[in-house]
């Protein structure tokens, strides 16, 4: 697998606010920020023609996870 871009760095602050590569992202009312972030990174994967690697730090839970987000919107954890 060849990734055309460096991994995206995501930080989630709350249910409605986060950052993707330092750029603020907000979710509309009644939509979780996770859905917005995955949709944006799905578009990136479509533009790249392959999965987008992302590292997500979630302040709500104090954890970090690495995912591949595929052009069809599916996600899979990366060890």
Could you describe the 3D structure shown?
This protein is of the alpha+beta class. It is 20% helix and 41% strand. It contains one helix and six strands, in the order βββαβββ. It has one helix spanning 33-48, and strands at residues 8-14, 17-20, 23-26, 52-58, 63-69, 75-77. The two termini are 15 Å apart. The relative contact order is 0.23. The mean pLDDT is 92.
Topology:
Layout: E1 8-14, E2 17-20, E3 23-26, H1 33-48, E4 52-58, E5 63-69, E6 75-77
Parallel strand pairs: 1-4
Antiparallel strand pairs: 1-2, 2-3, 4-5, 5-6
Strand content: 35-45%
Helical content band: 10-25%
Mean model confidence by pLDDT: 92
The spatial strand order of the largest sheet comes to 3-2-1-4-5-6
Number of strands: 6
**Number of discrete helical segments:** 1
Distance between the termini: 15 Å
Instruction: Give the ordered list of helices and strands.
Output: EEEHEEE
Low-confidence stretches: none
Q: How large is the radius of gyration?
A: 12 Å
* Class from secondary-structure proportions: alpha+beta
Largest sheet: 6 strands, mixed
What general form does the structure show?
Answer: globular
């Amino acid at each position: 697998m060849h990734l055309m871009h460096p991994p995206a760095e995501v930080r989630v602050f709350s249910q409605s606010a986060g950052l993707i590569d330092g750029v603020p992202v907000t979710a509309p009312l009644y939509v979780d920020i996770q859905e917005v972030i995955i949709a944006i990174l799905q578009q990136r994967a479509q533009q790249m023609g392959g999965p987008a690697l992302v590292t997500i730090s979630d302040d709500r839970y104090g954890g970090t996870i690495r995912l591949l987000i595929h052009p069809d919107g599916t996600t899979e954890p990366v060890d």
